[in-house]
Amino acid sequence: DAKTTQPTSMDCAEGRAANLPCNHSTISGNEYVYWYRQIHSQGPQYIIHGLKNNETNEMASLIITEDRKSSTLILPHATLRDTAVYYCISLPSTSYDKVIFGPGTSLSVIP
Amino acid sequence: SQTIHQWPATLVQPVGSPLSLECTVEGTSNPNLYWYRQAAGRGLQLLFYSVGIGQISSEVPQNLSASRPQDRQFILSSKKLLLSDSGFYLCAWNRLSNQPQHFGDGTRLSIL
For residue range B49-68, what is the model confidence (pLDDT) as tens digits? Predict the structure, then answer.
């Protein structure tokens, strides 16, 4: 079973911010929160990751709550090309066998 | 820059036939390598990972096996395919376990 929970699907209007939530209430202190996305029939694409602090890169921002039990991926200005399945996973720094991708959130960006 | 290649992109095989999917990484050395399977509409399931040549760890009991004959080559195999082996197979790599994994474009395997 996935260690994170995400809504099954979300819609977002083109040009608006897309805020994708993720719950990871059992996350351990050494586990990072990673976000990937998968456009249909392609391999997942890395977006961003963080441990405690909020992170920002050219693709998105990651907001992690102070207790680290949840996080939000923010796509500031969603485009139609952002339509994809978004995966939130928690990954320990040392244990390969804990990598679990759940079903993710299917984001539809609507014109 | 580093790149990862998987082939073939699609494959249709009869039940009971053998399988060999190949994954190679360029532009890096001693990568960690991973094989995942994704059933339709589902998340990714980690099948195998490798931290070095000849070192393979299996995550789930199954009809498949993996090998790493060279540093940047990862092969997924089966002697006799089952219908349940159908799916989207993805190879990934990273340099360290706490770094992002980079995925190939996958192989869509259909068993008839």
Answer: 999 999 999 877 678 999 99
For the beta carbon of residue B109, count every other beta carbon within 10 angstroms. 21
| Tens-place pLDDT, residues A88-104 | 988 776 665 556 788 89
Residues of chain A whose C-beta is under 8 A from some C-beta in B?
2, 32, 34, 41-46, 49, 87, 91-97, 99-104
Q: Quick check: B47 and B36 in contact, CB under 8 A? A: yes
Rounded to an integer, what distance in angstroms lies between the CA atom of residue A42 and that of residue B15? 25
How far apart are the C-alpha atoms of B103 and A42, rounded to whole Å? 9
**Contact (CB<8Å) A93/B101:** no
Q: Which residues, at least 6 apart from A83, have a Cβ–Cβ distance to it below 8 Å?
A: A39, A107, A108, A109
Cα end-to-end span (Å), chain B:
38
